[in-house]
Amino acid sequence: MAHTKARWEWLIAPWYDCDRHQCRHTLKALKQVANDLGTLPRVRFSGRRYKPASLLPAAGLRCGHAGAPYQQTSHSWRTAERPIGPARPDRRGGAPASGAGMTGLPPLRGRATAGRLLAELTWLRVGGPADWLVQPADTDDLARFLRQLPRNVPVFPLGVGSNLIVRDGGIRGVVVRLGRGFNAIAVTGQRVRAGAAALDSHVARRAAAAGVDLTFLRTIPGSLGGAVRMNAGCYGRYMADVLVAATAVTRAGEVIALSPADLAFAYRRTTLPPDTIVTEAVLEGPSADPAMLEARMADQLARRDATQPTRDRSAGSTFRNPAGHSSTGAADDTHDLKAWKLIADAGMKGARLGGAQISAKHANFLVNAGGATAAELERLGEAVRKRVSETTGHLLEWEIMRVGEPARDQQEE
Ligand SMILES: Cc1cc2nc3c(=O)[nH]c(=O)nc-3n(C[C@H](O)[C@H](O)[C@H](O)COP(=O)(O)OP(=O)(O)OC[C@H]3O[C@@H](n4cnc5c(N)ncnc54)[C@H](O)[C@@H]3O)c2cc1C
């Protein structure tokens, strides 16, 4: 296999089976790489230099001591020629990735990481590893990748994980997280065009500075892609009220244009297939004075801070209000059927299970009070549902999405 210098710069090689310094296989591999490049490549992972053996996976070579094929570097997936083995687990924990029958990934200009621990990417700080975390460079890269990804490999779009409990066993298949290539925001007149990775709060602020009222997005901590999918909203306004058009990439890798009618918005719901990835949206809001919009956003933030555990690790409202409507924040909003009231009346405010807790500040917020597992959060949520059902007759419906698999030992329980 020929090596090019570009390909070997900034390799990340987190796993290797043999790190014996004098391993003859290591030395042989190093010699081969050095010959091809004329110099040794730089290898870094988390700011730490690795032992020479970590060059083996980078070089797509095997070490005779370990026997297993090496794989996984961040940038080396750019070439299709390398043999790619099944994903291996993140060294920081989690179950070995099954790969859902995956034997390799198609080429990608962006980044692919095997076994990435999703707890690092969710608001609740829980979640086992994704078989692969894929961060495409742009829409073309994503579309090409999905076209070539075997159809039996499941794909899950991840925003910033502010509405998710990712279970402790993680997510099988490919988790797609949009990054830098998808966060541009441009305002023209009353319309705002933004990439799906842009944070709702950034979209609101950019719009407000240009005199466009999308202030309701200011206090929602998700990404625009997640907001489209979830029909996110508060203070009486929802994505459904402001979305003009969206662009998405289907699981088959087709780039499609979506109208609001295509999405069939409902309360915290759209009909977007779960593996279709929104890449961009165009929103429109009424014109207003930027200073007034700024003041309104500051007021909304202060109101949130006063009533919700905004500094705790949560995923927002845990359960839907039985009436199916979110709290509007209006003075005449009735509270009789609010989930938080039912939970408080059932005596579950402040309830705790391991590191999971029902917030003492707002009873509809499930928080990671420290070291919680996804299983603890989910079990506490289910305990709340049971108690509320027994005491009030209302069976609460989860608003937080629960995705992925339980950890292996939890499956056996
Ligand atoms: C403190 C707090 C307050 C909150 N307040 C509100 C609120 O007032 N109103 C409200 O509506 N929500 C609220 N939420 C919930 C959450 O912020 C929203 O649901 C948000 O829209 C989720 O966006 P995300 O990027 O975090 O998506 P994630 O949580 O990562 O994912 C949620 C869903 O969206 C999908 N998704 C994510 N990105 C994309 C994409 N690019 N294309 C297709 N699908 C995608 C995922 O597959 C998943 O199905 C709150 C959460 C927290 C933590």
Fold topology:
Blueprint: H1 5-8, H2 24-37, E1 44-45, E2 48-49, H3 55-59, E3 111-114, E4 130-135, H4 139-148, E5 155-158, E6 164-166, E7 171-177, E8 185-188, E9 191-195, H5 200-209, H6 224-230, E10 233-234, E11 237-238, H7 239-242, E12 243-249, E13 255-258, H8 260-263, E14 277-284, H9 290-307, H10 339-345, E15 352-353, E16 356-358, E17 366-368, H11 374-392, E18 401-403, H12 408-412
Parallel strand pairs: 4-7, 5-7, 6-18
Antiparallel strand pairs: 1-2, 3-4, 8-9, 9-14, 10-11, 12-13, 12-14, 15-16, 16-17
Bound molecules: flavin-adenine dinucleotide.
| Outline type | globular
**Order of SSEs:** HHEEHEEHEEEEEHHEEHEEHEHHEEEHEH
Helix and strand content put the structural class at: alpha+beta
- The average pLDDT score comes to 80
Number of strands: 18
The radius of gyration computed from the alpha-carbon positions, rounded to a whole number of angstroms, is 24 Å
Low-confidence stretches: 1-28, 36-101
The share of residues in extended strands comes to: 15-25%
Spatial sequence of strands, sheet with the most strands:
8-9-14-12-13
User: Main β-sheet: number of strands, strand sense, barrel status?
Assistant: 5 strands, antiparallel
Question: Into which percent range does the helicity of residues fall?
Answer: 25-40%
The CATH homologous superfamily of the domain at 311-408 is termed: UDP-N-acetylenolpyruvoylglucosamine reductase, C-terminal domain
Total helices: the number is: 12
**CATH class designation of the domain at 311-408:** Alpha Beta
CATH topology of the domain at 311-408: Uridine Diphospho-n-acetylenolpyruvylglucosamine Reductase, domain 1
Distance between the termini: 47 Å
Write out the distinct hetero groups bound to the structure. Answer: flavin-adenine dinucleotide
Q: What is the name of the CATH architecture of the domain at 311-408?
A: Alpha-Beta Complex
